[in-house]
TrEMBL record:
Residues 1-25 form the signal peptide. It comes from the Bacteria. Keywords: Plasmid, Signal. InterPro entries: IalB_sf. This is Uncharacterized protein.
Length: 413
């Protein structure tokens, strides 16, 4: 998980997206900037309930973000929702895998009061449409899906008229089942806060454009570097194009892999291979999985639930392979909704008809049990979901885990 960062830090992490500085007119600094010194914040503009604040830099290269205040005073909550654009074009990149962020989000309390420590917050809906994933907790290691937004998440936020921010009482617990590889959280929503987005898109663009102006950057020329690589997948060479950034790769590849290269005959880094095989997942959701590598055949067979070694390969390979069985967001959201309602106020995993139900902190919904019990559980959600997920007959018998992430469902059996 990438750390929460300011726009300037985000910009510096993506140097390959920058173009040479151009001769541009000096930015029109607001009078409010004269009242603050270097590394202090000034108010640039206001659009409805959304404000644009910038950090003044000594070299006049300010960095800006937009924010609004959200609150539920009856629950003792007053929060700051901040969106920081990354300096890159807001158009979809022509690459198989786009790994670089378009923006980042922080939902944070205004106060340092201890009562905030047990909560976390998430944007859960955009215009009543479920929004995948959870953001960072306010104390300790609670980061999951966020704070970075991919193209789809960024576009959904920019086009929304209203969003829902849900605040959860988080009880961290290490799961004792097959997924005992990271912290799981029981998510107890205490309040849903409706946030109007009127003025957000204007504030977002203002923050992005002013930052670009002060850095002398032409936003129309910010194209990320696209690279191509290949790896052997099930005995066949698979070609992949992906967005590359030197600093991003340094944070997502181990020293050992950088020195010796990934397993196999191809030249794809392990994080690119995993992203290629899990197009519907976020970085946090991918962290639940590892690459299955066949040493004898020298090929990658797919993905498994488990812990990765220094090469992204499963430390303890099992016979359980995970297969993407559909790309229906309807099925994924139905399962996620079932998991959320089933876990409820329980502590740890909940057993429903012999099925272990877990809401993972990354936003993934996980059902584990025998094939018959899993099918029975999905039947309680709806026959359409059951039909979509069981169509390949992958859960007829044996131990099965169903993982609903983003817009797809994966079956590990």
């Amino acid at each position: 998980m990438l750390p929460i960062r300011s726009l300037l830090a985000g910009f510096l992490m993506f140097p390959s997206m920058a173009c040479p500085q151009m001769a541009m007119a000096a930015p029109d600094f607001p009078l409010a900037r004269n009242a603050v010194g270097p590394d202090e914040t000034h108010l640039l503009d206001t659009f409805g309930e959304w404000k644009v604040h910038c950090v003044r830099a000594a070299d006049n290269q300010d960095s800006c973000k937009t924010s609004t205040t959200i609150s539920s005073l009856e629950n003792g909550l007053e929060l700051n929702l901040t969106v920081t654009p990354v300096l890159r074009q807001s158009t979809k990149v022509n690459a198989d895998v786009d790994l670089l962020a378009f923006a980042s989000i922080v939902i944070s309390p205004y106060s340092k009061s201890n009562h905030y420590n047990k909560f976390t917050a998430a944007i859960t809906k955009t215009d009543a449409t479920p929004f995948d994933g959870y953001w960072c907790g306010w104390k300790g290691e609670g980061c999951s899906r966020g704070p970075d937004l991919d193209f789809a998440g960024n576009a959904a936020l920019l086009s929304a008229k209203n969003i829902t921010v849900s605040v959860y009482d988080v009880a961290p617990q290490i799961a004792a089942d097959v997924l005992a590889i990271s912290s799981h959280f029981v998510l107890n929503p205490i309040v849903d806060i409706d946030v109007p987005m009127s003025g957000f898109s204007q504030a977002y663009e203002r923050a992005k454009e002013f930052t670009a102006d002060t850095h002398g950057i032409d936003l129309l020329g910010l194209n990320p570097e696209i690279r191509e690589c290949g790896f052997d997948f099930k005995g066949n060479q698979k070609a992949v194009t992906y967005t590359y950034d030197e600093d991003f790769e340094a944070k997502n590849i181990t020293f050992r892999e950088a020195l010796r290269g990934a397993r196999g005959s191809g030249d794809c880094p392990s994080y690119v291979m995993l992203a290629s095989l899990t197009p519907d997942m976020t970085a946090a959701q991918r962290s639940m999985f590892c690459l299955d590598y066949d040493k004898d055949q020298k090929t990658y067979a797919g993905i498994q639930l488990g812990v990765s070694d220094a090469y992204g390969v499963c430390k303890a390979p099992s016979k359980s392979f995970c297969e993407r069985v559909n790309s229906s967001k309807q099925a994924s959201l139905a399962i996620a909704g079932f998991v959320g309602s089933s876990v409820g106020g329980a502590v740890g995993a909940t057993t429903v008809t012999g099925t272990t139900v877990v809401a993972h902190s990354s936003g993934a919904a996980i059902l584990t049990g025998s094939g018959g019990y899993i099918a029975g559980t999905l039947g309680t959600i709806g026959t359409s979901v059951l039909g979509i997920v069981t169509a390949p007959a992958t859960i007829a018998a044996g131990a099965v885990t169903v993982v609903a992430v983003g817009g797809a469902v994966y079956v590990c059996s």
